[in-house]
Each structure stands twice: as structure tokens, then as C-alpha cells.
Amino acid sequence: MTSWIQRSPPAAVPRRCDVHSSRYRPHGLLWLLALGCLSACADETPVPTETGELSRSVDSEVSIFGAGVLPTTSADPDIASVELGVKFRANVPGVVSGIRFYKGSAANTGPHVGSLWSRTGQRLATATFTNETATGWQTVRFTTPVSITANTTYVASYLAPAGRYASTGGFFNGQGAANGPLTALASGVDGQNGVYVYGSGGFPTQSYNHSNYFVDVLFTYSPDTSAPTAPGALVATAPSPGAIQLTWSAATDNAGVTGYRVFRGSTQVASLSGGTLGYLDTGLAPSTLYTYTVKAHDAAGNVGAASNAASATTQPPPAGGGLSLPRVPWEGGPPFYAAYPAMAGTPWLTEDFFPIAYWGAYTDTESRIITDKAHGINAFLETYAGNASSAGWMRKHGIWNLAGSGAGGEAVGATFPDETDMWGGPGWDPWTGNYGGYDVCIPDDPRRCGFTLYNTEYQRLNNPAAFIYANVGKGALMWWGDRDREIALNGAAGPDSRANWRLGMVTGDIYFYTDGNIGAEAVTWFGIPASEVRRASNYGEVLMTNLRTASSAGNNGNPRAALGVVVELGGQATGSTLNANQVEGAVWSTLIHEARVVAYFSHVFSDTTANPSSTDVLNDTRPAYQATRDRVKAVNARVQSLARVLNTQSYVWQFNPKLSTMLKFRDGAAYVFAMQKRQYASGSYTFTLPLELPASGTVEVVGEGRTLPYSGSTFTDTFAAEYTHHIYRIVR
Fold first, then answer.
1. Residue limits of the Fibronectin type-III domain (predicted)?
2. Are 362 and 392 in contact (CB under 8 A)?
């Protein structure tokens, strides 16, 4: 939106009629009119039971937001005409009879027009507000109410011709708002919520900061008491020693099936969405008979009868190496790089090579390159101060340059302009040819030409087989909506046919340890509590997860590019500091979340005793960086020693729900990489092993000179700090 001020994150959204909260006590007649309901709070929400009975049988009119949910900003300084909306769903069919919106200030002048839209932008009804009050909830009813379908996204909106609308920034980040059968969707459920479009009115599709603009509906429904039918034709097959595949035909329901519950014997093992007609049950014992049933349920909580029972026996254990567990989607390693001609004849195509890269490497002297290589660096992602000898030095010392033309030699890749997402923005506006600074896009405010820039750079390269590297920042990883993020990372394979680029490697560079702004931003954009921001786990849990999700959009969960995260080597904000333990923790967090490259940022912008300002940490000989340089060298040596393991595809297995883990198998042994998840405290954690591994024996803790005896397919180890990680080796 036009207003780029930092807004306070919303408090948790209580239920509208929580009688224990003073915020949700009714306030006179206005509350009754706004909700269109004189029912007692205790009667407002149907109470589902297993048999499908409900506590209420009369029609009710409800809205999403109650009188206690108030905007943090009464009148945004924006004065442009804008249509503001909310995406919502009802879990039962019903009728929308009108629109309501909250006016925080008399400055939000009309005429205001309310509209109801389909998800694809068809206007279903509209009406002009009359008899408005100076502030508070305003209501208008349609001449003809509109019937809506259960579990379908609609958009309610109103036109604010003079701006000055009420809002709460970050409201829909990680949470929705629900009342009875209505839900305003959390961002990410169906794109971002809190939508708008500037102009004299129209379908709102843009979003900013997950903002709630306090638009609502008047919805009438009849409680649902009918249970779904039983799912049909349940079939069980055994694709591997440790898994059973189930398929079934859809159940039916008067309001729509919203989910299925899968039972192994009498134990429920899965809860699935209503559109899912299959399930892979994993972690099973080989050569074992299992029996299943499936039940359907609807949004009201009515559960139908069980399907037919289906049984299958898992396959015997594999005779050779490997595990029978499902695999994590894979997009890295030598077979991936072999698709790029510039990689031919390089170590990238061997099992013992893993990319360890330096972003911002200086190549003006051979001594710098020698030092980088001595620290384990084998690739440059961005280079500075190059000269006629730089390429030869790189070739001589075995460092592969992704910042070149992609034509071969040491230049195995080509680099797109850094952080285009942040200074170019998402969109197809014309690009002036400038980088960063001013006059980048036409118009230059708001900037929306980043996709045009990518297209232009790709055409200028004139090499469709090039291995292209791009680094993205807070735009693609934080501020943008899902579709824009997917366009940027997937290019020609993404959701916009205008995109022509194809990326071979993508990194992200949000610095959770030392960015001066990340504290408030992480709370607003990622929903991370302030106390959990400065943790190594965020580099993998947040950034790698976002990158993999966006890069795999529309590709059955398979990312289209090798992915990684750039880790800082020193403070980036004035006064911030970073120590060697934190650097190491951030690196392993990215690897545990399937990073295909280790990457470091060369610059330090803080100026502290611990992290003095530096342009090239690995070549900075001051004592302040000795520990960091030594640790980087040790980490890189460990990574390279495990290259054969890291270059194998991971298996799906949960050792402990409070740990982030990665499971691989190589040369007769399982390797378990682990560190605690962001939300949990340091301490001891118990691992549960897959049944295919020995139930008792000894666990080697790789690189730590210790072993752990175990039995009963479990072992326990301690994680001393938030950055602590361990690697375990278990011989089968």
C-alpha cells in the first residue's frame, strides 16, 4: 500500500463471544445491529458431535468480526481512492445479504460502495452505503441476497473514494479470524489476505503486509446435521518395505466433504483434506500385514460411516543398500548439474564435490583467492575488483565462478543482479536499465519492474542453457505474495507465461542474527515471537522452507533450482555482533533443511570490537575474526568430507517433532543431521529410529569423538544451545 509505516502486529484474535474476555462484551444496540443476531453467545457456534447432532437448529445471521476486534490504525494517511477487501469462506452453504465495514474516522468519506465477488473476480452483488454514522461499523444490504457455496473462497470489499481507511497491519500473517461457519482466511491459505486495488472501484487482488481492512459480510445459514456417505472402493497396496499406499473414491455430502480420517486398525493415523483421495502410510515394519478403513467428515463435524476394510502386507526389506522410506523431493547433486553444458568436465558432476561459496569475493590479487581456497571455498557467487588475471587465478586454484557469462572455464554460471526483488519489485512495468538507486522502473513509485528486468537480463545473456544464479532478499522471501514469489523463482516454468528465464541456483539472504530491522519484521511477516528471532534455526526453518515451497509450486513438490541461504560472517547493523558458534549453527540449519550450497557473505557493516567493519572477512587478519575464520574452515572441511552423503537424496522420517532433522543413507550407514527447532528450549531430546535400522547398537556422533549406546530403537542426546547441531551415523 501507499503507507509504508511500521504497524503494530495484531494481538491474538479471540472468539467473538468469549465471555471471559472484557474485549468481547457487547456494547449496546450497535453491536446487535452489526451482527444481526440477538442470540446468546453460548448459542452462536454449532457444536458438532460424532453422530452429527448440533446444539442449534434455527437459522442465524453472523459476521466474521465482532465489536471487540478494532483496528490499530483508525485512519490511514493514504488519501487515494481504493477498493479494500477480505477473502473469506463459509464451511456451510448459505446466503450473503450484505456488506459491512468499520469506519475508524469521519475522514473516511463516501460514497462507499460494498461488493461481493467470486474468487475469480466476478461481481456477484453491489450496493451503496447510506445513513452512515461518523465512526463504527457501517452496514448495507443487497437488493437480492447471494447464495454461496461451502468451502469456497469469496471476496467482500468496499470502495473508500477518499482513502483514510481503518486497518491493522500484519493481522492475517499466520492467522485467520473465525466466527461460527465464517472464516477470514490466513495469508497463505489462498494467496495473501487483506486485498486492495487503487482506482474508482474493481476487484481487489493486491496485498500489503497481510493487513486487515475490516470488511465483513452478513451471512445466514442453516446448521448441517447430515453426515457424509462412506468412502468407496478403498484399496491398499504395498509399494515398499516400509509403506502402504491407500486409494479410495470420494464420499458425498449435502454441504460438501471437508476431510477424511484414515484408520490403521482402530488407530487414526491421518487427517486429510476433502479433495484428497489417497494416503501413503510410512514408517511401517517390513513383511507385516496392515488393515485400514477411512471415514469422511464435513465442516460441521458430522462423521460418516467407515469405508470397506482394505489390507496389504508390506514388502520384505531390500537386499541391497538404502532404506524403504519415502524420499524428500530432490533437485541437487551431480545429476542436476549435469543438465548444464558449462558444468561438463568440472568437479560439480562428481559425488565428492559440494558447492561452498563466497558472496562478494575480491579477485584483485592471487593471495586473496589462495586464502579463500584454504578456507574451503570452491565457488564465487559474486566477485569484486576483478582484473585480467582474475580468471586465471580462479582456474589455477579450483574456484568456480557463478558470476561470469556461463560460457565455460572457471565461469560455470551467470548471475542476475543482486536482490532485484527488493529494489525492482514484482511486476512487468518498463525497466529503465538502471540498477538500484532511483529511476529503476516506469513509474518509479511504486516499483514493479523486477520481472521485466529478469526477462531482459536473460535475453541479453543469449544462452538458454546457462546455469543462472540469483540471490533474493526480503522482497521474495518476506514482502511479496505467493504468486509473485513463484514467478520469480520459477520463471518460464512458473504461473506467468510472460516469464522466460530459468534459474539453476537461488539463495536468500535475510540475516536473523544481525539485521537491525529483522526483529519487528519477523514478528509481522513470519509470525515469529520476538524472543525467537535471533536463532540459527530460522535460516533453515523459515528461509529454506520458503524457498523450497515457492520453487516447487506446480511441480509435485519438486523444487526447480538448487537452493541455499547466504550466512553472514559478522554484524550487519550498527552495533550488532555474531560469533563463530552462530555462524556454524546457521550453516547447518540450511543444510538440514535441504540446502544444496553453503554460502557466506563477505562484508560486515557493524563496527564493534567483536565485529569491526570489513569488506572481506576471510582475508581479514585482525584477531577479532580469527575464531570465525577458523570455524568457517572447520565447517567447510566437515561439509566436504560429507559430500558423498549430502549428494544423496534424503528420506522422510520424523525422529522427534521438536527437532529439525535430515535422514540420508550412504555406504551401508544411515546419517541423521539434527538441531532443535526454533520454538523449543535447549536440552535433551529422544530420537525414534525407523524400524529398518537396528533396534539396538551404537550411534557414532560424527566429528565429536563420542558414541552413544542405544536400545529399543531410541537414543537420547543433548543440545546445549540454540545453535547446537549433531550428526549421527548408524551402521545397518
1. 230-317
2. no
Sheet of strand 267-273, all strands in order from the earlier edge strand to the far edge: 267-273, 257-264, 289-298, 310-313
Retrieve residue 544's grid coordinates. Answer: 529454506
Task: Show the beta-strand stretches assigned E in 168-231.
Answer: 177-179, 182-184, 195-198, 206-207, 215-221
Mark out the alpha helices in 525-658 (DSSP H runs): 537-538, 545-551, 580-592, 626-641, 643-646
Looking at residue 35, what is its pLDDT? 29
Q: Give the side-chain half-sphere CA count within 13 A for 253.
A: 35
Quickly tell me which residue has 572447520 as its cell.
Answer: 634
Residues 6+ apart with CB under 8 A from 113: 126, 127, 128, 129, 158, 159, 201
Query: Tell me, what's the pLDDT at 3?
Result: 30
Q: Collapsing DSSP states into helix, strand and coil, what is residue 579?
A: coil
Strands 379-384 and 414-415 come out as: unpaired
Chain position carrying cell 536440552: 683
3-class SS of residue 34: helix
Angle formed by the axes of helices 450-461 and 482-490, to 10°? 10
Q: Which of the residues in the chain have pLDDT under 50? A: 1-58, 406-408
* 3-state helix, strand and coil shares in percent for the chain, rounded to the nearest 5: 20, 30, 50
- Enumerate residues 6+ apart whose C-beta is below 8 A from 317: 241, 286, 287, 324, 692
Amino acid at 194: G
The pLDDT, as a whole number, for residue 281 is 84
Q: What is the DSSP letter of 528?
A: -
pLDDT at position 324, please? 83
Compute the distance between CA of residue 545 and CA of residue 522 in angstroms, rounded to an integer: 15
Contact present, 309 and 261 (Cβ < 8 Å): no
| Angstrom distance (rounded) from CA 139 to CA 133 | 10
Q: What CA–CA distance (Å, rounded) separates 680 from 683?
A: 9
Assigned C-alpha cell, 584: 556454524
Q: Where are the alpha helices (DSSP H) in 294-419?
A: 334-337, 366-374, 390-397
Q: Which three cell numbers mark 562?
A: 538448487
- CA-to-CA distance for 183 and 63, rounded, in angstroms? 9
The dihedral built from the CA positions of residue 525, 528, 532 and 538, taken in this order, carries a sign that is negative
Q: How far apart are the C-alpha atoms of 378 and 401, rounded to whole Å? A: 9
Q: What is the pLDDT of residue 110?
A: 93
User: Radius of gyration over alpha carbons of the chain, in Å?
Assistant: 28
CA atoms within 13 A on the CB side of 251: 32
Question: Beta partners for 89?
Answer: 183
Contact 336, 367 (CB under 8 A): no
What spatial distance separates the first Cα and last Cα of the chain, rounded to whole Å?
A: 57
Residue 430 preceded by cis peptide, ω within 30:
no
CB distance 645 to 671 below 8 Å: yes
Dihedral over Cα of 292, 298, 303, 308: its sign: negative
Contact 87, 154 (CB under 8 A): yes
Q: Which residues is 408 bridged to in the sheet?
A: 411
**pLDDT of amino acid 196:** 95
Beta bridge partners of 532: none
State the Cα–Cα distance between residues 578 and 604, nearest whole angstrom. Answer: 10
What is the Cα–Cα distance from 686 to 714, expressed in whole angstroms?
Answer: 7
Calculate the dihedral angle through the C-alpha atoms of 383, 388, 393, 394, rounding to the nearest 10 degrees.
40
Spatial neighbors of 626 by CB under 8 A, at least 6 apart, are none
Widest CA span in the chain: 83
The pLDDT of residue 315 is: 80
